[in-house]
Design goal:
The structure holds 2 protein chains of 2 kinds. By secondary structure, chain A is of the alpha/beta class. In chain A, 22% of the residues lie in helices and 26% in strands. Chain A has helices at residues 8-20, 45-55, 110-121, and strands at 28-32, 35-39, 60-68, 72-80, 86-94, 99-101, 124-126. Chain A has a 5-stranded mixed sheet, with helices on one face. Chain A has a two-stranded parallel sheet with strand order 6-7. The termini of chain A are far apart. Chain B folds into 2 domains: 46-338, Cytochrome-c3 Hydrogenase, chain B (Orthogonal Bundle), CATH 1.10.645; 376-408, no CATH class. Chain B contains 16 helices and 8 strands. In chain B, the strands form 3 sheets. Chain B has a 3-stranded antiparallel sheet. Chain B has a 3-stranded antiparallel sheet with strand order 6-7-8. The radius of gyration of chain B is 22 Å and the shape is globular. The N and C termini of chain B lie far apart (72 Å). Classes of the chains: A alpha/beta, B mainly alpha. Chains A and B meet through strand 3, strand 4 and helix 3 of A and strand 6, strand 7, strand 8 and helix 12 of B.
Chain lengths: 164, 408
Amino acid sequence: MSGENAMTEERAIQAELVGKFPFLDGRMRIARARRMFAEAPAGQAGEVLGHLQERMQFSILCAITGLDLGATLGVIYHLARPSGIVLNLSTALPKEKPVLQSITARFPAAAAYERELADLLGFQVQGLPDGPRYPLPDNWPAGQHPLRKDWTAESLPGAPRKRD
Amino acid sequence: MPNANLQVPIGPQHPALKEPTSFMLTLSGEKIMKAGIRLGYNHRGIEKACEARTYIQDLYLVERICGICSHSHATAFSMAVEECAQLEVPRRASYIRSLVGELERVHSHLLWLGVAGHEVGFDTLLMYTWRDREVVMDLLAMLTGNRVNYGINTIGGVRRDVTSEQKLKILEGVAVLEERTKYYITVATEEVTLARRLSGVGALSHDDAIRLGAVGPTARASDVPRDCRKDDPYAAYTEVPVNVVTDNHNDVYGRTLVRCGELMECYRLIRQLVENLPEGPIAVKAPRKIPAAEAFVRYEAPRGEDVHYVKSNGTEKPERVKVRAPTLANVQAVAHMLKDGYLADLPIVVAAIDPCFSCTDRLIEVEGSARGGIMTWGQLRAYGIEWHRRHGVDFSRLNANFRAGEDR
């Protein structure tokens, strides 16, 4: 399956995307058969994602991963074609202003994934429909984002001190 | 009183499900006008915890994300780490992974069939399927030593081989289960009461299933032929092709037929995997430190697509582990299915996606209670033993045996 000949579809996708979005030149790679990675500059992931869904049959949103990259916060949209090819579209946002546009208009199932980004990493997701938070409890203190690298359970107000 | 719209909260603890989740329903009489779902009650902090543990410790942790599809998470995680480390897993190991995966699917689908029967008042079906499920549980225990958290995987392959006597026992067990499943298919297709109770309930059209991102049997019962084993093959499925079972009833009845059909397909796959099990080693040695890389794995769990993303950073602990279990993908679809349905159908509609909220929520940080504080594992064990002793159950003899086992 991972033979060179089997990867023509992946290469065609890469060529089409780089042709349409020159800023992706040199920022895409094919890791193996059916696994592609692309890195969009901040603020430009949305248009790439729209193009992938509308014109390139990437109709499945598998998940959204948020990452604490140190100086920035990263987000990866894991998109798939029904044929099995996955494109991991990532972008990085400044940590002091991690503002993201919601993609729920395109993928309604993204709501839960985007609420996770907000709760666990502190993303500000604009355009997210009203609804209960997820996954942290309603009384979770504001500004505490457990998946940030500098966060520990001891950061919680009133948390018990760790015993040695 | 006229049928003014009424808001009814159901849950998080409620009789329909064994796991907590909360529904806020807007009712007009018996009819559900709007359904909101609040998740997160099983959030345990597993993704965060993974970052503080080694890859091998994480393997055992992710296996405990779910009590039913534990092998799904462990396999998906192993495959992601192996891809980061560029390890080539031996063919025999891949076959054993798929074999345990299919046995797990049999156990999960039989369990679901029983729960579905129970939710609609057909408890005979629950008793029958759960009795039969013991056959596959025994096979899993024989192969792995465990009924639920199998611990068969390791980074680089599997930990236990399959002997020729075990192969025979698997084939015998599968023959029994196949006969029983044929009977359940007859019940599902010919028993008018069951078909009428499930038909038209929890409707999800083909287009809505795609739009809302439904996965697994939920999607396939709305005629969406998606299955990672076929679309994005992994482990032994690259050599042993899967026939995707679909149905176009678009309701709970369809979801029942899809799962019954998948059981039959599982038996075929199990036979093929057992009969074609390649010779050779069952694992390659994995490095303790995994070079910096990232990998994204899709695994077809019994409930649908389970995805794991692992980013390594050259150390023995991962930089990031992300899990998206199938139930989270199906939640939007459930809210949609409940709308315009009847309140009394809620249990079976929710049960029909075979929800698993432990999988879905994964993470929570324990907030310290007034008495609390953090205990070490040894303190926790001592506390548990003492608590039971005070309540009249003495574990001290068992405890001595346990220690003896630990020393060996």
